[in-house]
Amino acid sequence: MPTSSTIAIVGSGPIGSAYARVLLEAVPTAHVVMFEAGPQLTAIAGESVRNIADPAEKDRARELSQGPQAGSFRESLGIPPSAVIEGMFTARGGTHLLDFGGEGSAHAASFPAAAASTNVGGMGAHWTCATPSPSFSERVPFITDDEWDGLIADASRLLHVQNAAFADSGVGAAIRSLLAEEFAGELPDGFGPGTLPVSGDPQPDGSMRWAGADVVLGPLIDPDSALSARFELRDLSLVRRIDHTDGRVVGVTVEDLRNNEVYSVTAALVVVAADAFRSPQLLWASGIRPHALGHYLTEHPVVISTVALDADSMGRFATDDQLADELERRSANPADPVAAVNRIPFSEPAHPFSLQVMYAENPPFQLDPDHPAAGNRWGYVNMGYGMRKQPRYEDAVTFDDHEPDYRGFPNMTISYELTEPEQGEIAEATGRLRRAGEALGSFIAEPRLLPNGSSLHYQGTMRMGDADDGTSVADPYSRVWGYENLVVGGNALIPTATTMNPTLMSVAIAVRGARKAAERLNEGDENA
Ligand code: FAD
User: Fold this and answer.
1) In this structure, are strands 198-202 and 161-162 parallel, antiparallel, or unpaired?
2) Helix crossing, 170-183 with 420-440: angle to 10°?
3) Whole-angstrom Cα distance, residue 103 to residue 82?
4) In angstroms, rounded to a whole number, what is the distance separating the alpha carbons of residues 349 and 334?
5) Distance CA 10, CA 314 (A)
6) pLDDT of residue 335
7) Residue minimizing CA distance to atom 39 of ligand 1
């Protein structure tokens, strides 16, 4: 690429941010313009709202993310606060339902909890920051293990992943010991109960500064870095169309939501990272319609429960002093729902599930003061199993050219069904959740399957593949088949059935796609 070229990135979540960072670091002449439909919430672009100490300010930031923000059309499409269980796998504050029931709402009766965030940093401003790595068949089959391990290491650096977060918590260690006792001998070496990696920076007071798109952008939003001069983030800027001709993208058409002005930007490369529903919708609206677009939708079904920790059982592995230490640490930051996070990871063949176990000193919902477990001194755990959903063409988001949604895009209909393989694994995981709960204490919320869409981890709708055979949207380097300079990113690329939180995996895939695109740009390939 001999002269300065513009790269347009659609979406400012962790994935769009990873593309911006890798491309700007690797291509000396590039200028990145990132378009984000939602508003900037925090002074530092893309920072996690979990880091906002003032509860009213935090609520405001969440509300601002819950729907379109343009002029008089500012409204909340969010989930009522009463339905919010913070820190667990369910639709939460900071998101808005796609099927919200109003005019221009998506149709998603079989996937009712489908949600999105519309703000600088995307869902990455609201996420729980759990960053496990995919393993066994969760990985992308055509990327070698060696390459994959390197990509995960790079993605971990971009996301500030801590592999041993809360490892010094005595309460967390006791929970792991009880789970190890229960499941001993059933799990392969290295895949037993452990701490869950999380994305953030531990602070001297024992709290965590949670990571968002801000840490991925890093030097791009640091005015002292030379890279920041080549990066521009435009919030409240809705990309309406990807402009293309003869299999080559030429730029994007953007609406400035502050004044509804529409303008075009010419770009040498366009990256679409606008989530697993709105990215395929934008491609569709732009007349880019590979056979698999929107299809093969998966998430991991989730069964959850809440357990009051049993004093005698916990007391076998942790002392009263350790409990007191934990409670003291928690009291330093009571607004942060994430503490002592443990897990049992996916392994094959015997344990094709991911268990996430989050300690909290209070239950995530109002517990009747007369309940025998109310005020439980040892606290509680919120636990959830993630299970597989096998990809099928029939599970899809489709788009209707004749029915505009509330933004004027072809409206979405989601069709989704859990079939026999899923039902079997859901029943098995529910049984395991019951065992885990009984090993730790007593249930104050029985295991239950959450409505489809509750995981917030939507995958497959722009899946990557190693052949242009109609079952994938993107090539192994995330380029849309047939479009030399159109790259897509996000959980939608994941082609496999996974059980874990997917963001680290999607950042790893993005690093691979960005490096390849950078190579082409540096070679001066007109069709980068
Ligand atoms: P997003 O973060 O969704 O960002 C996409 C952005 O694109 C949005 O800001 C959107 O406004 C913008 N956009 C859409 N259309 C357009 C357009 N036409 N023009 C301009 N901009 C557009 N994942 C994990 O791995 N671990 C977790 O613990 C975890 N916990 C979560 C907890 C919560 C409460 C939530 C909400 C999510 C959680 N996730 C978790 C999911 C995680 O946040 C997502 O996987 C991640 O943010 C995906 O990144 P992304 O950049 O692909 O998309």
Assistant:
1) antiparallel
2) 120
3) 24
4) 40
5) 48
6) 73
7) 127
Give the per-residue pLDDT at 62.
86
Residue whose C-alpha is closest to residue 325's, from 206, 177, 176: 206
Q: How far is the CA of 449 from the centre of ligand 1 (A)?
A: 23
Q: How far apart are CA 307 and CA 373, in angstroms?
A: 9
Query: Is 371 assigned a catalytic role?
Result: no
Span 275-332, pLDDT tens digits? 999 999 999 999 999 999 999 999 999 999 999 999 999 999 999 999 999 998 888 7
Residue 359, amino acid = Y
Q: Give me the sheet containing 248-256, strands edge to edge.
A: 237-245, 248-256, 261-266
| 317 neighbors 173 (Cβ within 8 angstroms) | yes
Give all strands (DSSP E) within 124-282, no chain letters.
161-162, 194-195, 198-202, 208-210, 231-234, 237-245, 248-256, 261-266, 269-272
Residue 107 clears pLDDT 60, i.e. is over it? yes
78 pLDDT exceeds 60? Answer: no
Kindly give the distance from the C-alpha atom of residue 324 to the centroid of ligand 1, in angstroms, as a whole number: 37
| Cβ atoms of residues 344 and 191 within 8 Å | yes
Task: Answer whether 371's CB lies under 8 Å from 444's CB.
Answer: yes
Mean pLDDT of 403-409: 95
Can you tell me which atom of ligand 1 is nearest the CA of 132? Answer: 25
For residue 272, the CA-to-ligand 1 centroid distance in Å is 13
Q: What are phi and psi of 409, to 5 degrees?
A: -90, 160
Closest Cα to atom 37 of ligand 1 = 127
Measured from the CA of 489, which atom of ligand 1 is nearest?
A: 52
Whether residue 528 has pLDDT greater than 70: no
Q: What is the mean pLDDT of the chain?
A: 92
- Per-residue pLDDT, averaged over 29-36, amounts to 97
How confident is the model at residue 217, as a pLDDT? 98
Any ligand 1 atom below 6 A from CB of 282: yes
Closest to 396 in 3D by CA, of 476, 492, 306, 516: 492
Cβ–Cβ contacts within 10 Å for residue 10, how many? 25
What is the average per-residue pLDDT within 381-389? 96
**265 close to ligand 1 (CB < 6 Angstrom):** no
The tokens for 6 are: 């513009």
Mutation test residue for ligand 1: of 69, 503, 507, 509, the one with most atoms within 8 Å of CB: 503
| pLDDT mean over 449-464 | 96
Give residue 454's pLDDT. 93
pLDDT at 87 over 60: no
Spacing, Cα 443 to ligand 1 middle (Å): 32
The response to whether residue 38 sits with its C-beta less than 6 Å from ligand 1 reads: yes
Q: Cα separation of 77 and 380, whole Å?
A: 31
> Which of 284, 310, 308 minimizes the C-alpha distance to 295?
284
